[in-house]
Specification:
Strand order of the largest sheet: 3-2-1-4-5-8-9-10
Radius of gyration: 24 Å
Number of helices: 17
Order of helices and strands: HHEHEHEHEHEEEHEHEHEHHHHHHHH
Number of strands: 10
Strand content: 5-15%
Length: 383
């Protein structure tokens, strides 16, 4: 009877069924090509990044709605696990309290599970943890994955400095772009207007994909073809912010602080171009350059802790002040200053970069905070 019944189905109905099946197949095919995003890191900036991204994955059909966020598991004073609280309240109560991340953000304490099936990986952890994270991910990610680093810092190895984007690319065998800019996380969290710069290496289409993922009406993102320039701006400005904090702690005034910022920008540019001649002058006028330097020297955590260090005459260590003032967040400027100093010392460049050298020497107790303005007597005139 089945063939006879099938024959009785009107031709129009058969065509409708065929069209519906075709539509469902096309939907399934489109779904299988949607990009899936994982944010690796869940501190202050990582949580804000997840908020930005989740609003766009809900809005844009080319992305899976769910955004995984890898969380380094912690037990809160209440006895609850941080990931459980994030998933229950949709809020990172430790690192970004009072801000809803988006109901499509899922906190995951298992790094390998968090990146499973994702082809867009957003790295946003303190730079000193990145090598260990990459080692754990070798062989665990999709071959076609793309990465972007929001990490500000560098690794110094025997063969020389290694940018975090290069570390990711070399260890995981994938392309890595960068995103840096004048981005104080708490201001973006409450949707105050801000800008950022994506640095990409070759593929403009990939860069535009990242722009699309992060761009919102209050977070304007542009792309430039200069990974090293963008990344070094985001890294080195933290060293200058430490210097600005010393100036604030010693109450030296705005004229001195402006001078430190200008000289710091000059050393940022010279250091970047000496390491990577391909770095573009124009990059320093993007959000990742002068804008990020200004905002970090005015309001960032590096400036804040360096101010306290100077007010205490260098008698309390940065580690002690960091633990007391940042509630688990990490400074980048002091460790970056140490890494930069190692590069300068190894290459015989210390005399060329008196501000960078002095920041490290003050931070490690070799010089008093007041030395931040005394270095100018040996300032080179060659840049």
């Amino acid at each position: 009877m089945a063939p006879a019944l099938e024959a009785q189905v009107p031709e129009e109905a058969q065509q409708t069924v065929a069209n519906n099946n075709s539509f469902l197949n096309s939907v399934n095919d489109a779904a299988s090509h949607r990009s899936k995003v994982t944010v690796i890191g869940s501190g202050n900036w990582g949580s804000v990044a997840a908020k930005l991204i989740s609003s766009n994955t809900l809005r844009l059909g080319s992305f899976h709605e769910e955004v995984r966020m890898w969380v380094y598991e912690e037990t809160l004073p209440s006895g609850e696990k941080l990931t459980d609280v994030i998933n229950r309240t949709n809020e990172n109560v430790k690192y970004l309290p009072g801000i809803k991340l988006g109901k499509n953000v899922v906190a995951d304490p298992d790094l390998e599970n968090a990146v499973k099936d994702s082809n867009m990986l957003v790295f946003v952890t303190p730079h000193q943890f990145m090598e260990g994270i990459c080692k754990r991910l070798v062989g665990k990610i999709r071959a076609d994955a793309e990465a972007i680093s929001l990490v500000k810092g560098m690794e110094v190895k025997m063969e020389g400095p290694c940018m975090i984007s290069s570390l990711i690319s070399e260890q995981l065998g994938i392309n890595c772009s960068v995103l840096m800019g004048a981005n104080i996380a708490n201001e973006i969290a409450v949707e105050k207007f801000s800008e950022a710069t994506v640095g990409y290496r070759h593929n403009r289409e990939v860069a535009e994909r990242w722009v699309q993922l992060f761009y919102t009406p209050y977070f304007i993102v542009t792309a430039v073809q200069d990974v090293e320039g963008v990344e070094l701006c985001g890294t080195l400005k933290n060293v200058v912010a430490i210097a600005a904090g010393f100036v604030d702690g010693l109450e030296m005034g705005n004229n001195t602080k402006a001078a430190i910022m200008r000289l710091g920008l000059r050393e940022m540019k010279a250091f970047s171009k000496m390491l990577f001649p391909s770095v573009k002058d124009s990059t320093f006028f993007e959000s990742c350059g002068v804008a990020d330097l200004i905002t970090t020297c005015l309001g960032g955590r590096n400036r804040k802790v360096a101010e306290a260090y100077a007010k205490n005459g260098g008698k309390r260590s940065f580690d002690e002040l960091e633990a007391e003032m940042l509630q688990g967040q990490k400074l980048q400027g002091v460790s970056t200053a140490s890494e930069v100093y190692e590069v300068l010392s190894h290459r015989g460049w210390l005399q060329l970069f008196p501000l960078f050298s002095t920041v490290h020497e003050i931070s490690t107790g070799l010089l008093p905070p007041s030395a931040i303005v005394e270095y100018s007597e040996k300032l080179p005139r060659s840049f």
